[in-house]
Amino acid sequence: MQILNHQELIDILHGCAILGTGGGGELDEGIAYIDEALALEKTFKLTSVDEVPAGEYVCTSYILGAISPLSAEEELAYIKQTRTLLLRLINVYSHIRGKLFTARFVMN
After folding, report:
1. What is the domain count for the chain?
2. How far, in whole angstroms, is CA 2 from its chain's centroid?
3. pLDDT, tens digit, for every residue of 43-55?
4. Nearest one of 10, 11, 6, 16 to 41, comparing CA atoms
5. For residue 99, what are the domain limits?
6. Residues 64, 107: one domain?
7. Are strands 2-4 and 103-107 parallel, antiparallel or unpaired?
8. Can you give the pTM of this predicted structure?
9. CA–CA–CA angle 66, 62, 7 (5° rounding)
10. In terms of domains, do 58 and 104 share one?
């Protein structure tokens, strides 16, 4: 497992922006999310598949959007719920499984 630093996280965002299929949001928004999380002393861990114990699962959650632009009302609703929605989804998945995930990758 490797704890990722600010520059490594920015590099990942740039790679995602280049290799992504579009619709992922503004790069500046992603950088702001990283800055906010690091300011709150959150850590970002890169875990190898080999480090996940046998029988355990990794949860990868993200939100996909339509290619059409959002209305002002939709944009406001999206901004208010996106981060908490992803965490709620992970909690629901964990509840269904009966235990927490070994690792989580949340992409917004």
Report:
1. 2
2. 17
3. 888 888 888 888 8
4. 6
5. 53-108
6. yes
7. unpaired
8. 0.58
9. 115
10. yes
